[in-house]
Each structure stands twice: as C-alpha cells, then as structure tokens.
Sequence to fold (180 residues):
Amino acid sequence: MDRLIKINNKEDIFAKYKNTPISDLLEYHDLLKPYEDVSSPQMLIAMCMDNRKYLHIPNNFAFIIRSGGGTLRFSEFKVSYTIAIGGIKTIALIAHNHCGMVNLMSKKEKFIQGLVDVVGWERKRAEDHFMNFAPMFEIGNEIEFVLEEASRLRTKYPNILIAPLYYNIDDNLLYLIKED
Fold:
C-alpha cells in the first residue's frame, strides 16, 4: 500500500497528470471540485462492475466501461471506438480493494452451486462455464493488475495518456499509484 498516493490537494497530483482529465477526475472525486458544464466526454474510465464504487463526476465527463476487475482485455473495440470516434486521448484504469475477481478460484464452488440453484443449470455445465471463463477474469493483486493493464494498453495505444488509479472502498477515495 506504500505505492498509493492520497490526494489531499491539487499539489499531490503527479506532474504528468496536471491539466489533464486525470487531474479533473481526481479533483472532482477526491477534492469535491464544483462541477463544470461538460459538453462532450473528456476521457474513458475503466473500472470494476462492483456496486460499491461511485464516482463524483459531472454528467458527460467520461465514457465508462465496467467489467469484472476493470479489465479492458475484452473491450478493446470499445476503447478504440472512444478514441477514434469519441476523440478520447485519456484513459483512467481504476482498480479497487476487496475485489471479487481476486482469488476467483476460491469462489469456484459457490459460483457453481449458485448457477445450479438459481439458474437451474446442470452441475457439469456450471463447472465448464466457470473453468472456461474464470482464468480470463481472475486477477492476483489489484495494484499489480492495474499496473500491468496500463502497461499493456500503453503499448497498444502509445499516444494515449493512461493512468492506473486505485479506489479505496473503505474511504471512497481515488489514489494515484506510484509506478516503477
């Protein structure tokens, strides 16, 4: 957790993010900057589908893609669309603590039994479903995952500003992550 930087004021924002939509996001969410009218999206935000996270941002400020763990691995066409058609030049990747996609294999039996009990699937079908998809969505450590995802996307989209961020569910704040 020593990689996380809390935003107490504008000066805490890394220089590379100053005067960018990343700075605006941090100021709106953590510093409660008053909302400005936004006529078109300024950025793409990728974050987990977890229901415990809510961003304080103005309407029209961002395209938002929510997926398990916040991965964009299976949403790259959508990312490309926001860049090519939406004119987006900035992406925030937001990981969070207590993510259900961490150690997903430990939830295997509950997942399978839930599909059997709630959906009515045969056990074999539920097992196959879990085993086919869990490896694609399981993440190890949330911070390491978001740093790896940022690196992967920077290679794919070299002219796009990509910021790995961390949402702390315990205090509902965004944190910058020190990268190596």
